[in-house]
């Protein structure tokens, strides 16, 4: 990894939407800029993804030991050489778990209540993720509270999604095993790699270091 494991023990996840403008070199530079455990790829709203395009992006992250998951579409995992899926909790989660486990990673996402989280954790999901990968204004405080509650009681790893660097610090402090950097945060004018490096500094020091 580009950096040693952070003092908080939290690791980074990166969220990218696979638009035509997404350059695999951007993804690779971002992965190399911090202790990145995983990249989650998303389809643009209303669009389908091409397995070859996914495979191209996944390869640059996987060569740096980052797992690559796809939001939702489990049917493309094998074709694109991905490591698993990030799937919304609910009735469809059990079927995805049966289909892909244990060969692939299955994370349960979009959790907004304690009950949903406990059901997902008991189902065999590899992690539980609180909130949406594209958070709405006002989501953060609920997400932080759920992370703090989960981290104190359960062993299944939990993810909190951050839209700002301050949220990275707060989620790590609340006990998140992984802090996911939202697509909007990574799309900062500073560039994804610089955002990842700044987030890594937050994790390493536990404060607002830049």
UniProtKB/TrEMBL annotation:
<dbReference type="Pfam" id="PF02581">
    <property type="entry name" value="TMP-TENI"/>
</dbReference>
<protein>
    <submittedName>
        <fullName>Thiamine-phosphate pyrophosphorylase</fullName>
        <ecNumber>2.5.1.3</ecNumber>
    </submittedName>
</protein>
<dbReference type="InterPro" id="IPR022998">
    <property type="entry name" value="ThiamineP_synth_TenI"/>
</dbReference>
<dbReference type="InterPro" id="IPR036206">
    <property type="entry name" value="ThiamineP_synth_sf"/>
</dbReference>
<dbReference type="GO" id="GO:0009228">
    <property type="term" value="P:thiamine biosynthetic process"/>
</dbReference>
<dbReference type="GO" id="GO:0004789">
    <property type="term" value="F:thiamine-phosphate diphosphorylase activity"/>
</dbReference>
<keyword id="KW-0808">Transferase</keyword>
<dbReference type="InterPro" id="IPR013785">
    <property type="entry name" value="Aldolase_TIM"/>
</dbReference>
<feature type="domain" description="Thiamine phosphate synthase/TenI">
    <location>
        <begin position="24"/>
        <end position="184"/>
    </location>
</feature>
């Amino acid at each position: 990894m580009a950096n040693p494991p952070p003092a908080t023990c939290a690791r980074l996840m990166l969220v990218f939407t696979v638009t035509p403008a997404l350059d695999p070199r951007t993804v690779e530079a971002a992965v190399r800029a911090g202790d990145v455990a995983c990249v989650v790829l998303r389809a643009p709203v209303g669009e389908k993804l091409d397995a070859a395009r996914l495979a191209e992006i996944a390869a640059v992250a996987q060569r740096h030991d980052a797992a690559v998951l796809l939001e939702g579409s489990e049917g493309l995992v094998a074709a694109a050489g991905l490591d698993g899926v990030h799937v919304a909790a609910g009735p469809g989660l059990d079927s995805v778990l049966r289909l892909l486990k244990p060969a692939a990673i299955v994370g349960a996402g979009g959790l907004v209540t304690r009950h949903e989280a406990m059901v997902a954790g008991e189902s065999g999901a590899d992690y539980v993720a609180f909130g949406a990968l594209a958070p709405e204004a006002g989501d953060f405080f609920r997400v932080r509270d759920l992370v703090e509650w989960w981290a104190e009681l359960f062993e299944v790893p939990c993810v909190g999604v951050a839209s700002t660097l301050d949220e990275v610090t707060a989620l790590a402090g609340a006990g998140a095993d992984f802090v996911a950097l939202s697509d909007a945060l990574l799309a900062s004018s500073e560039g994804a790699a610089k955002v990842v490096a700044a987030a890594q500094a937050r994790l390493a020091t536990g404060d607002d270091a830049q």
